[in-house]
Backbone:
């Protein structure tokens, strides 16, 4: 491996890594900004790309800030903490527009990223134990990083870290109104005026305030669409269906997690919803049984939609699809498959995960 090579950073990639080229081969350098000059050690040399680690900053950008977190260099969970929050929001907007411009059949120009708190926004922290210490896994190496606080999580969670049993992994959650904390157990929480009970293994959106804005946006679209039959795929604990519900809708939610679906059924009762039913299965196993929906909402994990799911969305031919995505790459792949059948009516970007590279979006598609 080559050490102490001087390089100039050309631009950033989606993951917030600097891009440079060494003898024509692309090299990704974390913790750098555009136009910076750095010395690097090449720590990985693959067939198509290299990974560099900065050993010395020769010229730093005027945009560089000192990360507020003392674990920044050893944790790796935050990829963008060396730029201001304003620059982060501009960067996310620009990079997602670029990804669409280069790879998507639909022409889009996303203007405003919707954001909220920069820090203390997370309602959940998972800490791992090595038998003696409790900490986060480094994003790349999986080494344990012992922490006494994480700037991204609610202070209600941080305040409890020192009291935790260090001999086993711990999941700490706080309710979105920050009235209740739970360690490895059930929790009662809320989004807007809806209440949700949450078991240890169940999925719940981690941003305690921006989720309400995300869901309001989905509900506003639904009010415009005014669907009778709604399919809520990848429904988690039923949170979207319950949030948008009104007496006219008939909603079916699908999720493969038993814990999610048990909670979804309880949450439906808790919020007096009489017209929602839930199916516990893999979406790709059951989707060919569905037909006659006005609206299908999909909110898949980062891998996006299975090809069979896209094929069945085309077969179901609902008038509208709302696609909630946490990964623009797989979103673009799936949108390209729907291009011949649907128009993209709107797309909104949400910074649900500040200081990390992740971007959330909502796309609304209307049948051609
Ligand atoms: C991004 S979460 C969305 C949950 C929910 N819509 C919300 O807003 O809280 C994705 C969900 O998809 C579920 N899931 C992942 N792969 C699945 C599959 N192949 N079939 C069904 N559910 C799946 C997970 O259990 C998780 O609840």
Residues:
């Amino acid at each position: 491996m080559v050490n102490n090579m001087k390089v100039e950073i050309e631009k950033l990639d989606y993951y917030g890594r600097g891009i440079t080229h060494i003898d024509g081969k692309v090299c990704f350098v974390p913790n750098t900004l555009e136009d910076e000059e750095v010395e690097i050690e090449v720590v990985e040399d693959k067939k198509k790309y290299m990974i560099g680690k900065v050993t010395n900053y020769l010229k730093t950008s005027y945009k560089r800030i000192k990360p507020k977190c003392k674990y920044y260099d050893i944790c790796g969970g935050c990829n963008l903490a060396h730029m201001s929050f304003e620059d982060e929001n501009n960067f996310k907007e620009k990079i997602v527009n670029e990804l669409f411009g280069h790879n998507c059949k639909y022409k889009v120009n996303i203007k405003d990223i919707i954001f909220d708190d920069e820090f203390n926004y997370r309602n959940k922290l998972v800490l791992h134990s090595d038998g003696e210490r409790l900490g986060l896994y480094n994003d790349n190496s999986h080494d344990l990083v012992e922490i006494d606080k994480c700037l991204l999580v609610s202070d209600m969670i941080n305040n409890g870290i020192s009291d935790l049993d260090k001999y086993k992994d711990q999941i700490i959650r706080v309710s979105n109104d920050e009235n209740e904390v739970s360690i490895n157990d059930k929790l009662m929480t809320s989004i807007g005026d809806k209440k949700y009970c949450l078991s240890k293994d169940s999925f719940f959106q981690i941003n305690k305030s921006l989720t309400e804005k995300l869901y309001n946006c989905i509900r506003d679209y639904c009010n415009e669409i005014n669907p009778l039959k709604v399919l809520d795929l990848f429904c988690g604990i039923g949170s979207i269906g319950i949030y948008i519900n009104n007496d006219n809708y008939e909603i079916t939610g699908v999720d493969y997690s038993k814990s999610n679906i048990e909670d979804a059924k309880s949450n439906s009762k808790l919020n007096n919803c009489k017209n929602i039913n839930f199916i516990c299965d893999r979406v790709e196993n059951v989707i060919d049984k569905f037909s006659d929906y006005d609206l299908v909402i999909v909110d898949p994990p980062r891998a996006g939609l299975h090809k069979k799911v896209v094929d069945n969305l085309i077969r179901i031919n609902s008038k509208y699809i709302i696609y909630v995505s946490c990964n623009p790459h797989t979103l673009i792949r799936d949108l390209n498959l729907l291009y011949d059948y649907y128009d993209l009516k709107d797309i909104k970007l949400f910074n649900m995960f500040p200081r990390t590279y992740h971007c959330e979006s909502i796309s609304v598609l209307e049948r051609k």
User: Anything to note?
Assistant: The chain has nine helices and 21 strands. The chain has a mean pLDDT of 96.
